[in-house]
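re the bet — no i am not wrong, look at it urself. input seq straight from the record:
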Amino acid sequence: MKLKKTHERIFWVGITALLLTLVVLLSFSPRVLATGFEAETQRQLGLFYEVLRFVQDNYVDEEAVAPELLMEGALKGMFEALGDPHSAYLSREEMRDLNDTTTGRFGGVGLIISKVERGAEVVSPIEDTPAYRAGITAGDIIIAIEDESILDFTIDEVVKVLRGEPGAPVRVTIQRGKTLTFDVTIVRAMIEVPTVKRTMIDGDIAYLRIIQFTPLTPEKVREAVDFFGQKNYRSLIIDLRSNPGGLLASVIDVADYFVSRGPIVSTRGRVEAENHVFYASQRETIVPSDLPVVVLINRGSASASEILAGALKDTGRARLMGETSYGKGSVQQIKGIGEAGFRLTMSRYYTPSGVSIDKTGIAPDTEIKEPELTEEEEASFTRLIEGDYVALFVEENPEPGEAEIIAFIDSLLDEEIVLSSRIIRRLVRNELNRTNNNPPLYDLEFDLVLKEAVDALRPGN
Protein backbone atom coordinates (compact mmCIF):
# COMPACT_ATOMS: atom_id res chain seq x y z
CA MET A 1 0.00 0.00 0.00
CA LYS A 2 2.86 2.36 0.85
CA LEU A 3 4.45 1.68 -2.54
CA LYS A 4 1.11 2.33 -4.29
CA LYS A 5 0.69 5.68 -2.53
CA THR A 6 4.25 6.60 -3.48
CA HIS A 7 3.46 5.90 -7.14
CA GLU A 8 0.25 7.94 -6.91
CA ARG A 9 2.14 10.83 -5.32
CA ILE A 10 4.73 10.75 -8.11
CA PHE A 11 1.93 10.72 -10.68
CA TRP A 12 0.14 13.74 -9.21
CA VAL A 13 3.39 15.65 -8.74
CA GLY A 14 4.11 15.02 -12.44
CA ILE A 15 0.63 16.09 -13.54
CA THR A 16 0.80 19.23 -11.42
CA ALA A 17 4.24 20.12 -12.76
CA LEU A 18 3.05 19.59 -16.33
CA LEU A 19 -0.01 21.78 -15.87
CA LEU A 20 1.98 24.49 -14.12
CA THR A 21 4.58 24.45 -16.88
CA LEU A 22 1.86 24.82 -19.51
CA VAL A 23 0.28 27.68 -17.58
CA VAL A 24 3.62 29.51 -17.23
CA LEU A 25 4.48 29.05 -20.90
CA LEU A 26 1.06 30.22 -21.99
CA SER A 27 1.17 33.19 -19.64
CA PHE A 28 4.33 34.49 -21.30
CA SER A 29 3.02 33.82 -24.82
CA PRO A 30 2.63 37.11 -26.77
CA ARG A 31 -0.47 35.71 -28.44
CA VAL A 32 -2.44 35.54 -25.17
CA LEU A 33 -3.21 39.24 -25.19
CA ALA A 34 -4.03 39.14 -28.88
CA THR A 35 -6.46 36.23 -28.95
CA GLY A 36 -7.26 35.06 -25.46
CA PHE A 37 -7.15 31.50 -26.83
CA GLU A 38 -4.35 30.39 -24.48
CA ALA A 39 -6.12 31.97 -21.50
CA GLU A 40 -9.13 29.76 -22.22
CA THR A 41 -6.78 26.79 -22.57
CA GLN A 42 -5.38 27.54 -19.10
CA ARG A 43 -8.89 27.59 -17.67
CA GLN A 44 -9.79 24.29 -19.30
CA LEU A 45 -6.59 22.65 -18.05
CA GLY A 46 -7.51 23.71 -14.55
CA LEU A 47 -10.96 22.15 -14.92
CA PHE A 48 -9.40 18.98 -16.30
CA TYR A 49 -7.07 18.73 -13.32
CA GLU A 50 -9.98 19.15 -10.88
CA VAL A 51 -12.11 16.49 -12.56
CA LEU A 52 -9.20 14.07 -12.93
CA ARG A 53 -8.33 14.34 -9.24
CA PHE A 54 -11.94 14.01 -8.12
CA VAL A 55 -12.45 10.86 -10.22
CA GLN A 56 -9.17 9.42 -8.95
CA ASP A 57 -10.17 9.96 -5.33
CA ASN A 58 -13.86 9.06 -5.43
CA TYR A 59 -14.83 6.60 -8.20
CA VAL A 60 -16.37 3.46 -6.66
CA ASP A 61 -14.07 0.91 -8.38
CA GLU A 62 -10.52 1.67 -7.36
CA GLU A 63 -8.95 -0.61 -9.99
CA ALA A 64 -10.63 1.41 -12.76
CA VAL A 65 -8.89 4.67 -11.87
CA ALA A 66 -5.31 3.73 -12.57
CA PRO A 67 -3.56 6.91 -13.78
CA GLU A 68 -2.51 5.44 -17.12
CA LEU A 69 -6.07 4.28 -17.88
CA LEU A 70 -7.59 7.68 -17.13
CA MET A 71 -5.00 9.55 -19.18
CA GLU A 72 -5.36 7.15 -22.12
CA GLY A 73 -9.13 7.63 -22.03
CA ALA A 74 -8.75 11.41 -21.92
CA LEU A 75 -6.35 11.39 -24.88
CA LYS A 76 -8.67 9.17 -26.91
CA GLY A 77 -11.56 11.52 -26.21
CA MET A 78 -9.52 14.55 -27.25
CA PHE A 79 -8.80 13.12 -30.71
CA GLU A 80 -12.37 11.83 -31.15
CA ALA A 81 -13.61 15.35 -30.45
CA LEU A 82 -11.84 16.52 -33.61
CA GLY A 83 -14.35 14.61 -35.71
CA ASP A 84 -11.56 13.52 -38.07
CA PRO A 85 -11.40 9.77 -38.84
CA HIS A 86 -7.71 10.12 -39.76
CA SER A 87 -6.63 11.65 -36.40
CA ALA A 88 -6.50 9.34 -33.39
CA TYR A 89 -4.72 8.37 -30.20
CA LEU A 90 -2.73 5.16 -30.71
CA SER A 91 -2.21 2.69 -27.90
CA ARG A 92 0.98 0.69 -27.52
CA GLU A 93 -0.57 -2.19 -29.50
CA GLU A 94 -1.87 0.16 -32.21
CA MET A 95 1.54 1.78 -32.60
CA ARG A 96 3.06 -1.67 -32.98
CA ASP A 97 0.45 -2.57 -35.60
CA LEU A 98 1.19 0.69 -37.42
CA ASN A 99 4.90 -0.10 -37.45
CA ASP A 100 4.08 -3.57 -38.80
CA THR A 101 2.10 -1.98 -41.62
CA THR A 102 4.90 0.48 -42.40
CA THR A 103 7.45 -2.32 -42.67
CA GLY A 104 5.07 -4.14 -44.99
CA ARG A 105 4.33 -7.36 -43.04
CA PHE A 106 1.50 -8.11 -40.62
CA GLY A 107 -1.06 -10.81 -39.89
CA GLY A 108 -4.50 -9.82 -41.17
CA VAL A 109 -7.06 -9.96 -43.97
CA GLY A 110 -5.68 -7.22 -46.24
CA LEU A 111 -8.19 -4.37 -46.13
CA ILE A 112 -7.76 -0.60 -46.15
CA ILE A 113 -10.79 0.75 -44.27
CA SER A 114 -12.26 4.04 -43.08
CA LYS A 115 -14.85 4.59 -40.33
CA VAL A 116 -18.31 5.62 -41.47
CA GLU A 117 -21.64 5.94 -39.68
CA ARG A 118 -22.83 2.43 -40.56
CA GLY A 119 -19.57 0.64 -39.75
CA ALA A 120 -16.25 0.48 -41.61
CA GLU A 121 -16.10 1.30 -45.31
CA VAL A 122 -13.65 -0.61 -47.48
CA VAL A 123 -11.46 1.98 -49.17
CA SER A 124 -9.75 -0.86 -51.03
CA PRO A 125 -8.65 -4.46 -50.54
CA ILE A 126 -4.90 -5.01 -50.86
CA GLU A 127 -4.35 -7.05 -53.99
CA ASP A 128 -3.62 -10.79 -53.65
CA THR A 129 -4.68 -10.88 -49.97
CA PRO A 130 -7.42 -13.04 -48.37
CA ALA A 131 -9.97 -10.19 -48.44
CA TYR A 132 -9.22 -9.45 -52.10
CA ARG A 133 -9.58 -13.10 -53.08
CA ALA A 134 -12.81 -13.35 -51.07
CA GLY A 135 -14.36 -10.76 -53.39
CA ILE A 136 -14.60 -7.82 -50.98
CA THR A 137 -14.51 -4.61 -52.98
CA ALA A 138 -14.13 -0.86 -52.48
CA GLY A 139 -17.34 0.66 -51.17
CA ASP A 140 -18.41 -2.42 -49.20
CA ILE A 141 -19.41 -1.64 -45.61
CA ILE A 142 -18.34 -3.99 -42.81
CA ILE A 143 -21.26 -3.86 -40.36
CA ALA A 144 -20.36 -6.77 -38.06
CA ILE A 145 -17.45 -9.04 -37.19
CA GLU A 146 -18.17 -12.48 -35.75
CA ASP A 147 -21.85 -11.46 -35.50
CA GLU A 148 -20.98 -8.46 -33.28
CA SER A 149 -22.04 -5.06 -34.59
CA ILE A 150 -19.15 -2.64 -35.09
CA LEU A 151 -21.43 0.40 -35.19
CA ASP A 152 -19.82 1.84 -32.04
CA PHE A 153 -16.28 0.63 -32.76
CA THR A 154 -13.51 3.11 -33.51
CA ILE A 155 -11.53 2.51 -36.69
CA ASP A 156 -8.59 1.25 -34.61
CA GLU A 157 -10.83 -1.24 -32.79
CA VAL A 158 -12.04 -2.58 -36.14
CA VAL A 159 -8.45 -2.95 -37.38
CA LYS A 160 -7.45 -4.70 -34.16
CA VAL A 161 -10.23 -7.29 -34.52
CA LEU A 162 -9.48 -7.95 -38.19
CA ARG A 163 -5.80 -8.50 -37.56
CA GLY A 164 -4.53 -11.69 -35.94
CA GLU A 165 -2.55 -14.85 -36.33
CA PRO A 166 -2.11 -16.11 -39.91
CA GLY A 167 -4.36 -19.12 -40.49
CA ALA A 168 -7.06 -17.97 -38.07
CA PRO A 169 -10.50 -17.35 -39.69
CA VAL A 170 -12.66 -14.28 -39.11
CA ARG A 171 -16.28 -13.86 -40.24
CA VAL A 172 -17.37 -10.42 -41.40
CA THR A 173 -20.82 -9.20 -42.39
CA ILE A 174 -20.78 -7.04 -45.51
CA GLN A 175 -23.37 -4.52 -46.69
CA ARG A 176 -23.16 -3.80 -50.41
CA GLY A 177 -25.47 -1.19 -51.87
CA LYS A 178 -28.73 -0.35 -50.10
CA THR A 179 -30.08 -3.79 -49.23
CA LEU A 180 -27.48 -6.43 -50.08
CA THR A 181 -25.93 -8.02 -46.96
CA PHE A 182 -23.97 -11.26 -46.66
CA ASP A 183 -21.37 -13.01 -44.50
CA VAL A 184 -17.85 -13.79 -45.66
CA THR A 185 -15.35 -15.94 -43.76
CA ILE A 186 -11.77 -14.83 -44.38
CA VAL A 187 -8.70 -16.78 -43.31
CA ARG A 188 -6.01 -14.41 -42.10
CA ALA A 189 -2.58 -14.55 -43.68
CA MET A 190 0.77 -12.82 -43.43
CA ILE A 191 0.11 -9.66 -45.41
CA GLU A 192 2.98 -8.34 -47.49
CA VAL A 193 2.15 -4.99 -49.00
CA PRO A 194 2.63 -5.32 -52.79
CA THR A 195 3.51 -2.36 -54.97
CA VAL A 196 3.77 -2.80 -58.79
CA LYS A 197 2.70 -5.28 -61.49
CA ARG A 198 3.38 -5.02 -65.21
CA THR A 199 2.57 -6.66 -68.53
CA MET A 200 1.87 -5.87 -72.19
CA ILE A 201 -1.56 -5.76 -73.89
CA ASP A 202 -1.92 -6.39 -77.63
CA GLY A 203 1.83 -6.28 -78.09
CA ASP A 204 2.46 -2.53 -77.81
CA ILE A 205 0.21 -1.19 -74.98
CA ALA A 206 2.07 -1.18 -71.66
CA TYR A 207 -0.02 -1.99 -68.58
CA LEU A 208 1.32 -0.76 -65.22
CA ARG A 209 -0.67 -1.48 -62.08
CA ILE A 210 0.52 0.47 -59.03
CA ILE A 211 -1.02 -1.26 -56.03
CA GLN A 212 0.37 0.97 -53.28
CA PHE A 213 3.09 3.59 -52.86
CA THR A 214 5.89 2.19 -50.69
CA PRO A 215 9.60 3.05 -50.47
CA LEU A 216 10.22 0.54 -53.29
CA THR A 217 7.56 1.85 -55.69
CA PRO A 218 9.73 4.35 -57.63
CA GLU A 219 12.37 1.68 -58.23
CA LYS A 220 9.74 -0.88 -59.31
CA VAL A 221 8.07 1.63 -61.65
CA ARG A 222 11.43 2.44 -63.24
CA GLU A 223 12.07 -1.28 -63.75
CA ALA A 224 8.64 -1.60 -65.37
CA VAL A 225 9.32 1.32 -67.71
CA ASP A 226 12.64 -0.27 -68.72
CA PHE A 227 10.75 -3.50 -69.43
CA PHE A 228 8.19 -1.64 -71.54
CA GLY A 229 11.00 0.02 -73.48
CA GLN A 230 12.47 -3.36 -74.34
CA LYS A 231 9.02 -4.35 -75.67
CA ASN A 232 8.82 -1.17 -77.83
CA TYR A 233 5.67 0.12 -76.17
CA ARG A 234 3.68 2.82 -77.98
CA SER A 235 1.28 3.80 -75.17
CA LEU A 236 0.79 3.26 -71.45
CA ILE A 237 -2.08 2.47 -69.07
CA ILE A 238 -1.47 3.26 -65.39
CA ASP A 239 -4.03 1.41 -63.25
CA LEU A 240 -4.55 3.15 -59.89
CA ARG A 241 -7.90 1.55 -59.10
CA SER A 242 -8.25 0.50 -55.46
CA ASN A 243 -4.80 1.95 -54.71
CA PRO A 244 -5.13 3.25 -51.10
CA GLY A 245 -2.10 5.55 -51.32
CA GLY A 246 1.11 5.40 -49.33
CA LEU A 247 4.22 7.54 -49.04
CA LEU A 248 4.24 11.11 -50.32
CA ALA A 249 7.92 10.95 -51.29
CA SER A 250 7.30 7.83 -53.39
CA VAL A 251 4.43 9.29 -55.40
CA ILE A 252 6.39 12.50 -56.05
CA ASP A 253 9.28 10.43 -57.42
CA VAL A 254 6.91 8.47 -59.67
CA ALA A 255 5.20 11.64 -60.94
CA ASP A 256 8.65 13.02 -61.71
CA TYR A 257 9.06 10.24 -64.30
CA PHE A 258 6.23 11.84 -66.31
CA VAL A 259 6.29 15.56 -65.47
CA SER A 260 9.39 17.55 -66.42
CA ARG A 261 8.63 20.92 -64.81
CA GLY A 262 6.26 22.78 -62.54
CA PRO A 263 4.50 21.70 -59.31
CA ILE A 264 3.45 18.10 -58.72
CA VAL A 265 1.54 18.64 -55.48
CA SER A 266 1.39 21.13 -52.61
CA THR A 267 0.42 20.83 -48.95
CA ARG A 268 -1.18 23.54 -46.84
CA GLY A 269 -1.87 23.64 -43.12
CA ARG A 270 -2.23 26.03 -40.18
CA VAL A 271 1.44 25.68 -39.30
CA GLU A 272 3.84 27.40 -41.69
CA ALA A 273 6.20 24.41 -41.65
CA GLU A 274 3.47 22.26 -43.21
CA ASN A 275 3.16 24.47 -46.30
CA HIS A 276 5.19 22.99 -49.14
CA VAL A 277 5.19 22.95 -52.93
CA PHE A 278 6.83 19.88 -54.46
CA TYR A 279 8.18 20.55 -57.95
CA ALA A 280 9.31 18.28 -60.75
CA SER A 281 13.09 17.99 -60.89
CA GLN A 282 13.25 19.47 -64.42
CA ARG A 283 15.31 16.51 -65.59
CA GLU A 284 14.41 14.50 -68.65
CA THR A 285 11.48 12.20 -67.93
CA ILE A 286 11.95 8.44 -68.32
CA VAL A 287 8.59 8.18 -70.12
CA PRO A 288 8.66 10.03 -73.48
CA SER A 289 6.66 13.26 -73.28
CA ASP A 290 4.70 12.43 -76.46
CA LEU A 291 3.76 8.89 -75.39
CA PRO A 292 -0.06 8.55 -74.88
CA VAL A 293 -0.95 7.77 -71.24
CA VAL A 294 -4.30 6.76 -69.74
CA VAL A 295 -4.82 6.57 -65.95
CA LEU A 296 -7.56 4.37 -64.47
CA ILE A 297 -9.16 5.42 -61.16
CA ASN A 298 -12.15 4.42 -59.06
CA ARG A 299 -13.62 5.25 -55.66
CA GLY A 300 -10.94 3.05 -54.08
CA SER A 301 -8.14 5.29 -55.42
CA ALA A 302 -7.07 7.36 -52.42
CA SER A 303 -4.41 9.67 -51.04
CA ALA A 304 -1.09 9.23 -52.90
CA SER A 305 -2.80 7.63 -55.91
CA GLU A 306 -5.00 10.74 -56.15
CA ILE A 307 -1.85 12.89 -56.08
CA LEU A 308 -0.46 11.08 -59.10
CA ALA A 309 -3.80 11.14 -60.95
CA GLY A 310 -4.28 14.84 -60.17
CA ALA A 311 -0.75 15.77 -61.26
CA LEU A 312 -1.00 13.91 -64.58
CA LYS A 313 -4.48 15.31 -65.24
CA ASP A 314 -3.71 18.95 -64.36
CA THR A 315 -0.50 18.99 -66.41
CA GLY A 316 -2.26 17.44 -69.40
CA ARG A 317 0.10 14.50 -69.30
CA ALA A 318 -2.61 11.82 -69.10
CA ARG A 319 -6.28 11.17 -69.65
CA LEU A 320 -8.25 9.79 -66.68
CA MET A 321 -10.93 7.10 -67.01
CA GLY A 322 -13.20 5.38 -64.52
CA GLU A 323 -14.95 6.77 -61.43
CA THR A 324 -14.32 9.78 -59.18
CA SER A 325 -11.64 8.85 -56.65
CA TYR A 326 -12.08 8.47 -52.88
CA GLY A 327 -11.15 11.99 -51.76
CA LYS A 328 -8.58 11.35 -49.03
CA GLY A 329 -6.55 14.51 -49.41
CA SER A 330 -5.21 15.07 -45.91
CA VAL A 331 -1.72 14.59 -44.51
CA GLN A 332 -1.09 12.97 -41.13
CA GLN A 333 1.97 12.97 -38.89
CA ILE A 334 2.70 10.17 -36.43
CA LYS A 335 4.09 11.16 -33.02
CA GLY A 336 5.22 8.83 -30.26
CA ILE A 337 4.31 9.20 -26.57
CA GLY A 338 6.46 6.61 -24.83
CA GLU A 339 5.36 3.31 -26.35
CA ALA A 340 2.02 4.81 -27.43
CA GLY A 341 1.44 7.72 -29.79
CA PHE A 342 -1.03 9.52 -32.03
CA ARG A 343 -1.63 10.53 -35.61
CA LEU A 344 -2.85 14.02 -36.42
CA THR A 345 -3.98 15.62 -39.65
CA MET A 346 -1.56 18.50 -40.24
CA SER A 347 -2.31 19.67 -43.77
CA ARG A 348 -4.20 18.95 -47.01
CA TYR A 349 -3.04 18.07 -50.51
CA TYR A 350 -3.62 20.37 -53.49
CA THR A 351 -3.19 19.44 -57.16
CA PRO A 352 -0.98 21.57 -59.47
CA SER A 353 -4.03 23.69 -60.38
CA GLY A 354 -4.66 24.43 -56.68
CA VAL A 355 -7.65 22.11 -56.21
CA SER A 356 -8.12 20.33 -52.87
CA ILE A 357 -8.56 16.57 -53.14
CA ASP A 358 -10.07 16.16 -49.67
CA LYS A 359 -13.66 14.83 -49.58
CA THR A 360 -14.15 15.61 -53.29
CA GLY A 361 -11.71 13.31 -55.08
CA ILE A 362 -10.41 13.49 -58.63
CA ALA A 363 -13.03 13.39 -61.40
CA PRO A 364 -12.12 11.33 -64.49
CA ASP A 365 -12.12 12.83 -67.97
CA THR A 366 -14.24 9.88 -69.09
CA GLU A 367 -16.62 8.41 -66.51
CA ILE A 368 -17.22 4.66 -66.78
CA LYS A 369 -19.24 2.74 -64.18
CA GLU A 370 -20.50 -0.78 -63.77
CA PRO A 371 -24.29 -0.93 -64.27
CA GLU A 372 -26.11 -0.71 -60.92
CA LEU A 373 -28.22 -3.66 -59.76
CA THR A 374 -31.99 -3.36 -59.48
CA GLU A 375 -33.65 -4.35 -56.19
CA GLU A 376 -34.61 -7.71 -57.71
CA GLU A 377 -31.03 -8.26 -58.86
CA GLU A 378 -29.68 -7.31 -55.41
CA ALA A 379 -31.94 -9.91 -53.81
CA SER A 380 -30.75 -12.53 -56.32
CA PHE A 381 -27.12 -11.53 -55.74
CA THR A 382 -27.58 -11.98 -51.98
CA ARG A 383 -28.97 -15.49 -52.47
CA LEU A 384 -26.19 -16.34 -54.90
CA ILE A 385 -23.45 -15.28 -52.45
CA GLU A 386 -25.00 -16.70 -49.29
CA GLY A 387 -25.71 -20.02 -51.03
CA ASP A 388 -22.09 -20.33 -52.26
CA TYR A 389 -23.48 -21.31 -55.68
CA VAL A 390 -20.49 -20.01 -57.63
CA ALA A 391 -17.87 -21.51 -55.30
CA LEU A 392 -19.58 -24.92 -55.40
CA PHE A 393 -19.82 -24.79 -59.19
CA VAL A 394 -16.12 -24.00 -59.58
CA GLU A 395 -15.22 -26.67 -57.04
CA GLU A 396 -17.08 -29.24 -59.15
CA ASN A 397 -15.88 -27.73 -62.44
CA PRO A 398 -12.29 -26.45 -61.96
CA GLU A 399 -11.95 -25.90 -65.73
CA PRO A 400 -15.50 -25.21 -66.91
CA GLY A 401 -16.23 -25.00 -70.61
CA GLU A 402 -18.94 -22.95 -72.31
CA ALA A 403 -21.49 -25.76 -72.06
CA GLU A 404 -20.96 -26.12 -68.29
CA ILE A 405 -21.27 -22.35 -67.73
CA ILE A 406 -24.51 -22.15 -69.75
CA ALA A 407 -25.94 -25.09 -67.80
CA PHE A 408 -24.96 -23.36 -64.53
CA ILE A 409 -26.71 -20.13 -65.57
CA ASP A 410 -29.84 -22.10 -66.47
CA SER A 411 -29.76 -23.89 -63.11
CA LEU A 412 -29.74 -20.54 -61.32
CA LEU A 413 -32.89 -19.53 -63.17
CA ASP A 414 -34.55 -22.68 -61.78
CA GLU A 415 -33.59 -21.35 -58.31
CA GLU A 416 -35.23 -18.00 -59.23
CA ILE A 417 -31.84 -16.25 -59.17
CA VAL A 418 -32.27 -13.61 -61.86
CA LEU A 419 -29.00 -11.96 -62.90
CA SER A 420 -27.50 -11.06 -66.25
CA SER A 421 -25.27 -13.63 -67.90
CA ARG A 422 -22.39 -11.15 -67.77
CA ILE A 423 -22.59 -10.80 -63.96
CA ILE A 424 -22.65 -14.56 -63.42
CA ARG A 425 -19.82 -15.16 -65.88
CA ARG A 426 -17.71 -12.51 -64.19
CA LEU A 427 -18.33 -14.08 -60.76
CA VAL A 428 -17.29 -17.44 -62.15
CA ARG A 429 -14.15 -15.86 -63.64
CA ASN A 430 -13.35 -14.16 -60.31
CA GLU A 431 -13.78 -17.44 -58.44
CA LEU A 432 -11.50 -19.23 -60.89
CA ASN A 433 -8.91 -16.47 -60.45
CA ARG A 434 -9.31 -16.67 -56.67
CA THR A 435 -8.19 -20.28 -56.72
CA ASN A 436 -5.43 -19.59 -59.22
CA ASN A 437 -1.93 -19.02 -57.82
CA ASN A 438 -1.05 -16.95 -60.90
CA PRO A 439 -4.22 -15.13 -61.98
CA PRO A 440 -4.06 -12.93 -65.11
CA LEU A 441 -3.18 -9.28 -64.54
CA TYR A 442 -6.09 -8.02 -66.61
CA ASP A 443 -9.43 -9.13 -68.06
CA LEU A 444 -10.54 -7.40 -71.24
CA GLU A 445 -13.73 -9.45 -71.41
CA PHE A 446 -15.32 -8.16 -68.20
CA ASP A 447 -13.28 -5.08 -67.21
CA LEU A 448 -15.26 -2.29 -68.89
CA VAL A 449 -12.90 0.51 -67.87
CA LEU A 450 -9.76 -1.24 -69.05
CA LYS A 451 -11.43 -2.25 -72.31
CA GLU A 452 -12.40 1.40 -72.95
CA ALA A 453 -8.82 2.51 -72.24
CA VAL A 454 -7.36 -0.07 -74.61
CA ASP A 455 -9.81 0.91 -77.35
CA ALA A 456 -8.88 4.60 -76.87
CA LEU A 457 -5.17 3.80 -77.29
CA ARG A 458 -5.51 1.67 -80.38
CA PRO A 459 -4.36 3.30 -83.65
CA GLY A 460 -6.94 5.57 -85.24
CA ASN A 461 -8.70 6.47 -81.95
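see?? The chain has four domains: 2-65, 105-192, 196-367, 375-457. told u. also The first strand starts at residue 88 and ends at 90. so pay up
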